């Protein structure tokens, strides 16, 4: 939809302003805002050149039908699959929502070792406030 397209354009502009190479989007509300997808298993990773939507086999078909403007990747381990793109694209600074659980943060640190992880307090919230 046009509304969704505008949301993604605003996201892209904010990503450029932020100085981040990419943002890892977690949290159902944030993912829904960018994709219209409301399943319980999804990870979104957006860079200047890519929009990745990773989900498990239960949701792949639904995602392919309903999520537009993203590459849909079926994944059992989304962070491990995302880091491959980080390596290929030579990204350095990866933003993430600082409200993730401590366990998730530890997983991020382990998988993105050698990259700069940049906690974001309100990146998505500020976008979602714009009507």
Largest sheet: 6 strands, mixed
Low-confidence stretches: none
Strand content: 15-25%
Based on CA atoms alone, the radius of gyration comes out at 14 Å
Describe the structure.
- The relative contact order is 0.18.
- The chain has helices at residues 2-18, 28-35, 60-66, 78-88, 102-111, 123-129; strands spanning 22-25, 43-47, 51-55, 71-74, 93-97, 116-120.
- The protein is built from 6 helices and 6 strands; from the N terminus they run H-E-H-E-E-H-E-H-E-H-E-H.
- The mean pLDDT is 95.
- A 6-stranded mixed sheet has the order 4-3-2-1-5-6, with helices on both faces.
- The chain has 131 residues and is α/β, with parallel strands linked by helices.
- The protein starts with a helix and ends with a helix.
- The longest helix has 17 residues, at 2-18.
């Amino acid at each position: 939809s046009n509304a969704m397209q505008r949301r993604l354009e605003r996201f892209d502009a904010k990503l450029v302003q932020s100085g981040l190479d990419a943002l890892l989007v977690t949290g159902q509300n944030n993912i829904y805002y960018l994709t219209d997808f409301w399943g319980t298993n999804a990870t979104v990773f957006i860079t200047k050149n890519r929009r990745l939507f990773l989900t498990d086999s239960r949701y792949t078909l639904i995602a392919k039908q309903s999520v537009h403007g993203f590459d849909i990747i079926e994944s059992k381990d989304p962070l491990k699959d995302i880091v491959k793109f980080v390596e290929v694209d030579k990204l350095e600074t990866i933003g993430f929502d600082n409200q993730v659980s401590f366990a998730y943060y530890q997983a991020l640190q382990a998988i993105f070792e050698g990259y700069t992880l940049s906690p974001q307090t309100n990146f998505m919230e500020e976008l979602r406030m714009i009507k």
